[in-house]
């Protein structure tokens, strides 16, 4: 019974260590992606895409609201 408890203890500590390390790795990766996002300016391709998608959503919403009142 004691050997079983030791194996379970080792497994739990190892799982905790892996989980804790993954959080740090994902946080570091996320910082790079966030920095890329913060480096956008008004002329970048990403900003242009977001503006166009937002415009299409706003126009579609307007058409939906107008069509809903007519019908």
Which features would summarize this protein structure in a list?
0% strand, mainly alpha, 2 helices
Descriptive report:
It is a single chain. The chain has 2 helices and no strands. Helices cover 89% and strands 0% of the residues. The protein has 71 residues and is mainly α.
The biggest sheet amounts to: none
Order of helices and strands: HH
Ends apart, CA distance between termini: 74 Å
Which structural class do the helices and strands define?
Answer: mainly alpha
Query: Number of helical segments?
Result: 2
pLDDT under 50 segments (min length 5)? none
Q: What share of the residues lie within helices? A: over 70%
Principal-axes geometry comes out as elongated
Instruction: Quote the average pLDDT.
Output: 84
What proportion of the residues form beta strands (DSSP E)?
A: under 5%
- The number of strands is 0
Rg over C-alpha atoms, rounded to the nearest angstrom: 25 Å
Short structural summary:
With 71 residues, the protein is mainly α. The chain has helices spanning 2-38, 45-70.
Secondary-structure map with pairings?
Layout: H1 2-38, H2 45-70
């Amino acid at each position: 019974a004691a050997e079983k408890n030791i194996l379970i203890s080792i497994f739990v500590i190892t799982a905790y260590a892996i989980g804790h390390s993954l959080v740090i790795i994902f946080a570091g990766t996320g910082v790079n992606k966030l920095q890329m996002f913060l480096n956008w300016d008004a002329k970048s391709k990403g900003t242009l895409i977001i503006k166009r998608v937002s415009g299409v959503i706003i126009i579609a919403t307007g058409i939906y609201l107008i069509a809903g009142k007519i019908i």
